[in-house]
Amino acid sequence: MAIQNRIGVLLVNLGTPDSPQVPDVRKYLREFLLDERVIDIPTVQRNLLVRGIIAPFRAPKSAKTYKEIWTDEGSPLLVYSKQLLKKMHGALGENYIVELAMRYQQPSIDNGLKKLKDERCSEIIVVPLFPHYASASFGSVVQKVMEIVGAWQTIPAIRFTGSFHNHPLFIKAFCAIGSAHQPENYDHVLFSYHGLPERQILKGADGNDCLTGNCCGNLHAKNYLCYRAQCFDTSRLIAAQLNIPDEKYTVCFQSRLGKTPWIKPYSSNVVEQLAKEGKRTILMFSPAFVADCLETIYEIAVEYHEEFKHAGGEKIQLVESLNDSQLFVDCLVDMIGKK
Question: In which domain, by residue range, is 18 found?
Fold first, then answer.
């Protein structure tokens, strides 16, 4: 009797608190920020910083913003991820078992992998839902998965899909959503990505010209795994498909934390400068996020919008994320390599 090999797929997003209440937000922040790849400083200093300063003081403020975006079904990021999971089940078919996990909090990577292990999958494909490679996101998922499976007695074939910042279907999916907003009718277009400390970019740099001049102007052999260079590449590809001229768009970085230098330019500074230059309307993409979350729904659509208006502008329009769009499903299926 032939053995039917079933393939396991683990979709992994960043994570979200269990609720918008302060204790749950504090718990989430602790797990997230204590990751050595997220705050990459010595363990003792990281613990003092996170447990003694960041989590206690940031949790109440973050809880307020989470309450602003929370839905009856729960956290938007988790809701959209579950919708994506459902579509992936249908797209991959019965030979695939698909589970959803979050790098931090629930559903956990540990439980997701255990379910696939219990199903006796002949292969497990891990899909980090981060389009651009960063040690603090993609790298952290790889490390966590390997720590877990490394303790198993029997280990099936494990494969990780790579970054997909330039996958044709990923670009096409964002273009489809963006085109509905008619970019040509806006004074300027921003591509805003989650920021990273400069030191993390420099740690992975090949050579001493990183973050100088036009180092991210093109993607090449030395910088192909550089987060910042991949962000610029995604922006170029989307702008080209939507016929957005170079002078009409800017790449920038949001969500910085602390006083150390983060990759530039900062989104908040760019928004303010555009208003001072007389720009009245901005269309804002955030292609680092494949599901709408706090950073898109609130940071961009609320906070940056208000900052822009305060500086003299009129409107910032968020381009919604991919969520469970069919083109994004098709992109993931292609990355997995459905047999």
Answer: 7-164+328-336
124 and 60 in a common domain: yes
Of 231, 263, 211, 7, nearest to 130 by C-alpha is 231
Averaged over 272-301, what is the pLDDT? 97
When divided into structural domains, the chain yields a total of: 2
Residues 104 and 189 in one domain: no
Task: Give the neighbor-by-neighbor strand order of the sheet with 281-285.
Answer: 249-254, 188-194, 281-285, 315-318
- pLDDT confidence band for 208 (50 / 70 / 90): low
Model-level pTM greater than 0.85?
A: yes
Assess if residue 30 is contained within a domain.
yes
Question: Quick one: 44 exposed, middle or buried, by C-beta within 10 A (0-12, 13-18, 19+)?
Answer: exposed
Instruction: Look at residue 114 and tell me if it is in a domain.
Output: yes
Any idea which residue has 């396991």 for tokens? 8
Q: What is the pLDDT of residues 236-263, one digit of tens each?
A: 999 999 999 999 999 999 988 878 899 9
Distance in angstroms (rounded) separating the CA atoms of residues 172 and 129: 17
- 21-43 pLDDT, tens per residue? 999 999 999 999 999 999 999 99
| Residues constituting the chain | 339
